[in-house]
């Protein structure tokens, strides 16, 4: 029996592991604590600032802003599932974690990632109704529908995350107790598992492909229709507003899906890429959306930006003050485009 309480690797699997992220940077890893701590604090504070703005301002209690706030809340949860253990790993080379802790972390990572995808679908539906059916928007996009979308998002996320965790829990980990990663990702755990893993690999890949392809088809179809309708709006101001709002959502979609796609390709195809590079891509995939999303929505969404400037500066921003006379004169068409 070894000192971790594991008997022979031939008849029982490891139940305690060591996370070793960025193994070739052993001497430099303590220097990464400060920048990654700053990144974590930035993710928490910027996302929380936008969420507080949406909650505090009554005129932002609309479906689009509520969905943005939910997306940013998921960003905070996703970063919290990864960063504390990652920072701990920078301090000590072999970062211990139990199998139960590893599976819990894995669940929250994939659950929050899938919630991101589902909330982006809900946002696409919201913009589709707002731009394609502006006169019926308030009748269609009700609080009841938002509740249904929230239940759908939770159910769909659980439906993918739970099977992955259950399947991983049933695997035998007899190769090594060292996970060459800073977090318990599905592929990183399969690399130290033994036995026939064909079904695990195929199920993981199938779930990923079905989820991503299904979502991208829906997002592509909806935003193609949205942009087509927006370009036909006669009012230049309303047309610019619709395209600008959709542009923010499309930036977020590209950030999330492209970072995830690049990570999957490297993990499954580029076998010659070093473990450090693979781990870096995983860090980008897991943390980049949480860092960029509040900046995209906080800076590109005029209503949110103006309230943040007013809250931080204690007065109306120059842009907001200059636009007040215009808003008093204007504009019936723009009122037909919620958000």
Plain-language structure description:
The model is unreliable at 1-10, 317-321 and 323-336 (pLDDT under 50). A three-stranded mixed sheet has the order 2-1-3. It is mainly α and 339 residues long. The chain has twelve helices and three strands, in the order βααβαααβααααααα. It is globular. It has helices at 33-56, 63-91, 99-132, 137-140, 143-169, 186-190, 198-231, 236-268, 275-300, 302-313, 318-329, 332-335, and strands at 16-19, 95-98, 178-179. It is found in: Cell membrane. This is Olfactory receptor. Belongs to the G-protein coupled receptor 1 family.
Question: Outline of this structure?
Answer:
The protein is an all-alpha fold and 339 residues long. Helix content is 72%, strand content 3%. Helix 3 (99-132) packs antiparallel against helix 8 (236-268) and helix 8 packs antiparallel against helix 9 (275-300).
């Amino acid at each position: 029996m070894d000192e971790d309480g594991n008997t022979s690797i031939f008849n029982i699997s490891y139940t305690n592991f060591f996370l070793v992220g960025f193994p070739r940077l052993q001497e430099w890893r303590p220097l990464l604590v400060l920048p990654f701590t700053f990144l974590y604090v930035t993710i928490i504070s910027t996302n929380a600032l936008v969420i507080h703005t949406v909650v505090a301002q009554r005129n932002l209690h609309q479906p689009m802003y509520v969905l943005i706030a939910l997306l940013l809340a998921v960003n905070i949860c996703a970063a919290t599932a990864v960063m504390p253990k990652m920072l701990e790993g920078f301090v000590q080379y072999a970062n211990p974690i139990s199998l139960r802790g590893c599976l819990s972390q894995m669940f929250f990572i994939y659950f929050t990632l899938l919630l991101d995808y589902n909330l982006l679908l809900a946002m696409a539906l919201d913009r589709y109704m707002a731009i394609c059916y502006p006169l019926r928007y308030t009748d269609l996009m009700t609080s009841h529908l938002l509740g249904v979308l929230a239940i759908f998002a939770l159910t769909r996320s659980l439906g993918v995350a739970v099977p992955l965790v259950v399947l991983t829990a049933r695997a035998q980990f007899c190769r090594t107790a060292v996970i060459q990663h800073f977090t318990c990702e599905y592929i990183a755990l399969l690399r130290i598992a033994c036995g026939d893993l064909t079904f695990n690999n195929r199920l993981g890949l199938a779930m990923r492909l079905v989820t991503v392809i299904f979502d991208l088809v829906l997002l592509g179809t909806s935003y193609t229709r949205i942009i087509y309708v927006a370009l036909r709006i006669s009012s230049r101001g309303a047309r610019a507003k619709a395209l600008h709002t959709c542009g923010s959502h499309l930036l977020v979609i590209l950030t999330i899906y492209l970072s995830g796609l690049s990570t999957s390709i490297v993990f499954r195809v580029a076998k010659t890429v070093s473990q450090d590079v693979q781990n870096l891509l995983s860090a980008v995939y897991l943390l980049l959306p949480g860092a960029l999303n509040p900046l995209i929505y906080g800076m590109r969404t005029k209503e949110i930006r103006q309230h943040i400037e007013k809250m931080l500066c204690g007065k109306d921003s120059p842009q907001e003050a200059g636009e007040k006379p215009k808003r008093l004169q204007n504009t019936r068409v723009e009122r037909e485009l919620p958000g």
